[in-house]
Amino acid sequence: GKWVYTFGDGKADGKSSMRDLLGGKGANLAEMANLGLPVPPGFTIPTSVCTYFYANGKTYPKELQAQVERALDHVGKLTGKSFGDGENPLLVSVRSGARASMPGMMDTVLNLGLNDETVEALALKSGDRRFAYDSYRRFITMYSDVVLGLEHHHFEEILDGYKDSKGYTLDTDLDADDWVALVGQYKEAVAREIGQDFPQDPHAQLWGAIGAVFSSWMNARAVTYRRLHDIPESWGTAVNIQAMVFGNMGETSATGVAFTRNPSTGESRLYGEFLINAQGEDVVAGIRTPQDITEHARLESGSDKASMEAAMPEAFQELTRIYTLLEKHYRDMQDMEFTVEQGKLWMLQTRGGKRTAKAALRIAVELANEGLINKQDAISRIEPGSLDQLLHPTIDPHAKRDVIATGLPASPGAASGEIVFSSDEAAKLQADGRKVILVRIETSPEDIHGMHASEGILTTRGGMTSHAAVVARGMGKPCVSGCGSIRVDYGRGTMTVGSRTFKTGDIITIDGSIGQVLAGRMPMIEPELSGDFTTLMGWADQVRKLKVRVNADTPVDARTAIKFGAEGIGLCRTEHMFFEETRIRTVREMILAEDEQARRAALAKLLPMQRADFVELFEIMEGLPVTIRLLDPPLHEFLPHSHAEIEEVARAMNADPRRLADRARDLSEFNPMLGFRGCRLAIAYPEIAEMQARAIFEAAVETEKRTGKAVGLEVMVPLIATRAEFDLVKARIDATAHAVLRETGAKLTYQVGTMIELPRACLMAGDVAETAEFFSFGTNDLTQTTFGISRDDAASFLGTYIEKGIFAVDPFVSVDRDGVGELVKIGVERGRKTRPTLKVGICGEHGGDPASVAFCHEIGLDYVSCSPYRVPIARLAAAQAAL
Ligand code: PEP
Ligand code: MG
């Protein structure tokens, strides 16, 4: 078998399309080599070896060792060096690289191949003993951490102690002899802590690092990351071994990270950070504050440190040439890592750059306008769920800001919450329903769960490419990073800025769009949607087949949804109008009524209120379809339960508290979700349905009279299992319509249809469609009744089901295609067979879930209906499904 793929010197065994085998990093290194770009030569051990490793008791294919040796020789030839050689040693980096970027995995090991002998050779060759020993101590630190399991802090403590004893403050105060002395101390620490000497044999070092990469695929952080990002375990990781180039060879050397476009805003301009005389992870680690790459960015940031453009003009020119070429080649914004070694630029990585939703939209629209991609590509480049980021509130610009500190605008949006200083605490509070801001000196992959649980993230260290910044952007959470004026004391649970101290539990607000940290909770306002958003959504609308409606019960919801492009109301849950505070007393009178007459009297009081609601909705929707559903929840939901509540309500209603309590008890059910609800209410108490129908038709007549425009009226009956139920309620609705039209002399067209949310209704859909004019699948109840899992009680065991792999995703979030989906399909087919013009939609929560929207497209529904903020998500998901 072929277990090693080489690259370098203008050619490679691999290419970018071989990502599954070579991992993202390996495939793109090969591609860059093929493009003739300056890539240090090296080779990739593919993911197939990882698969072999785990399938064969952590052993390697037998040919692997020889193939690695041969590849090392090849790299040696290209660089004129030799691995393990005492005079001219080849040093390598070892990096993991899975198919998808996985920040939870093994970090990098640099300078591998150094030992007590080769370090001297490096010193001689480079003429820089300080550089050689600095590289060696970095190697010992990294190797010990990721291969030997000896954490960084052991070495940091030694370094700090050494600096104290010498009166140094900065690492740059240390000279060659200092590093020599420290290397000795580091090696002693290794021997002491792990009971064996630091490995001196470069081959042993290399196999140790390779084994560590493959083993890291199963470490806890990686497992968590995969779970959060739906990455299959079977993918495995590749290992990339590459000749070292040195960014720490003095003032003409540097290392950096650059994006071809701004990952926060999408602006088409090279953007990034670099550090002179530094190596590898120094930029990302955020230990030193990096410098800007372009002069433009330096002027904007007001930094007094030279930009790369000014400090290294030749390398900068080369970087400019390469980034332009890479972006054209990949037809997407790239995130690149590079090193400058004594003035020469080397490319270490390129990949599609992570970006905010705002940047993603701008980049997609601009790439399409530049002709690099077409509109379809642009549509497919945006993750529908990410639009959520754009639709969230920002701080009211008129609000007075009490700015505590300013850091970097690492991830846009604003959020308020209680300060927490640990990720475990964040997760704990969030589980209790609290909103928190995670405050850390810096974050690491161990903080992922805490970042997930937080409204926003604040760090005191680290740049725009620090862990906190990158991860927060990916999660769509606001983040302010590198807020250096804040001092965090984990022990005390405080953060201090100047004379002000904030403690755990204090409320702060962060504004990730401008990098501010503010005291207290700030008023937020609805977001303005950008021109790019409108453009892209316009393209999406041109290709999608599904209509998108909204589930809206209030004028505010309806207006928001119109702004987001809703094409009608797919579900108006009228009970939400019953719940309204000032009406609840009348609703209770209605429920407590002794006889029909008393009930009708109470309903008569509710009628004008409902009518006014409907008039408002009809006016807002301006002739678009509006589906109004008759009362659905069990009546007991409207009654008070606790003793104190009953007393209070009885007093207010001037009713007998004992009677109220009796009635509440009468109405209580063992299983209300399967009890006296849905159309069963309308059947037992037809006067309720009649009042609602009257309110609806009178409102429609009134609106049409006032606006001169037809109302798109659809009346919907909930939770039917039989056609007989539907027919009975429909007869009442039609009779009421006739009465209203006779009384008003008006004309009106309307449809009466039903929710399909019980398995029997799906199976009997052919029969139901004889009289029902439209169907709307209520997949919340259909999921509940198909699985026999209570919607309201599922939380206690669903987590276990997902952990055990019984469910890949929560079936209440994403439709279960195999079971529930099959019932929907049957319902659609049988319904349309009876009535070819039958209009069919879905209004369960699934209507706003991209995967479920795709399913609805596939089975030919007419529309999906979802909550207002998910309307754009559904529009985009519907377009992607149609591509
Ligand atoms: C449903 O069951 O899917 C539905 C939309 O109705 P509700 O959530 O109000 O029961
Ligand atoms: Mg329902």
UniProtKB/TrEMBL annotation:
GO terms for molecular function: ATP binding; kinase activity; metal ion binding; pyruvate, phosphate dikinase activity. Residues 435-515 form the PEP-utilising enzyme mobile domain. Belongs to the PEP-utilizing enzyme family. It is an enzyme of class 2 (transferase). It holds the Pfam family PPDK_N. Substrate binds at residues 573, 629, 757, 778-781. This is Pyruvate, phosphate dikinase. Gene3D superfamilies: 1.20.80.30, ATP-grasp fold, A domain, ATP-grasp fold, B domain, Phosphoenolpyruvate-binding domains, Phosphohistidine domain, Pyruvate Phosphate Dikinase, domain 2. InterPro entries: ATP_grasp_subdomain_1, PEP-util_enz_mobile_dom, PEP_util_AS, PEP_util_C, PEP_util_CS, Phosphohistidine_dom_sf, PPDK_AMP/ATP-bd, Pyruvate_phosphate_dikinase. Mg(2+) binds at residues 757, 781. Its EC number is 2.7.9.1. PROSITE patterns: PEP_ENZYMES_2 (PS00742), PEP_ENZYMES_PHOS_SITE (PS00370). The lineage of its organism: Bacteria, Pseudomonadati, Pseudomonadota, Alphaproteobacteria, Hyphomicrobiales. Residues 60-301, 314-364 form the Pyruvate phosphate dikinase AMP/ATP-binding domain. Residues 530-881 form the PEP-utilising enzyme C-terminal domain.
